[in-house]
Amino acid sequence: MKKVHYQDIVAHVSSMCEEANFELGEDVMNAFQSAVREEKSPMGKEVLNQLIENANIASAERVPMCQDTGVSVFLVELGQDCHIVGGSLHDALNEGVRRGYEEGYLRYSIVDDPINRKNTGDNTPSIIHVELVEGDNLTIHMTAKGGGAENMSRLQMLKPSDGLEGIKEFIFETIKIAGPNACPPLVVGVGIGGNFETCAYLAKKSLFRPVGERNSNVEVAKLEEEFMSEINQLGIGPQGMGGSTTAIDVKVETGASHIAALPVAVNLNCHASRHKKVII
Ligand code: SF4
């Protein structure tokens, strides 16, 4: 049984929070570079170049790439032969967020109660999903999820007879409603199947995959390519200024569902697609 100490988790998470906000991942930067080459709209190209410049300044000056430093969302894969000592996993993740946001001078974006809306003052509590897996590793995926894109995300309980056409219609309608408000170019996370709550989780989970990585299921990978191509024909473009780069990637995760159900969830991620991963 491997032991992982509470303080190790805190230290890793603290630095993940800072790195996520200061350093846009290589996958996203590569997608921007390739979009600049392919974008036909001069305004779209200009916006993409500005996003690259913005990310470079953030990295060089160790400042957040966006004023919205996001909600810390974790997907934790906890090996069943891994034992966390010195405190609880949830406390360690929240303490890491507390430290990272304070030491990195990152904006606190969490209110304690959705009605009274008092800022908690340390960017906690985080949103934490834990999956129990084989082995003794503790893998922590973290994203700093922006509010603008999250606000434009949607879920619909379709009928099985709506089929693939109904799924596509819902996805494209969501992107059109979002327009510039989700800060495109987007990474579009799509959950298909499961039930009401797991469908939303599938969409969120898909966003933890690196940009450019296709689903390992060939049929689902084909859907990702197809959705991406059609989304990029909507003309919304970078920051909604027009162009062919509305999305830099589309991710799809699917799950088994009830015979009477076809839930679909679309979780949007903005151009500040900040995700980090550590294996302890
Ligand atoms: S949605 Fe993303 S890019 Fe837009 S303000 Fe929030 S973090 Fe920044």
Keywords:
Dihydrodipicolinate Reductase, domain 2, 2 domains, Fumarate hydratase, 280 residues, four-stranded mixed beta sheet, alpha/beta
Describe it for me?
The chain has 280 residues and is an alpha/beta fold. The chain has 2 domains: 2-22 and 65-145, 2-Layer Sandwich (Dihydrodipicolinate Reductase, domain 2), CATH 3.30.360; 148-273, no CATH class. It contains 8 helices and 10 strands. It has helices at residues 6-22, 26-38, 42-61, 89-103, 147-151, 163-178, 196-206, 218-231, and strands at residues 2-5, 71-79, 82-85, 127-133, 138-145, 154-158, 186-193, 247-255, 262-269, 275-279. The protein has a 4-stranded mixed β-sheet with strand order 4-2-5-10. The longest helix is centred in the N-terminal third of the chain and has 20 residues, at 42-61. The model has no long low-confidence stretch (mean pLDDT 98). The structure holds iron/sulfur cluster. Iron/sulfur cluster binds next to α5.
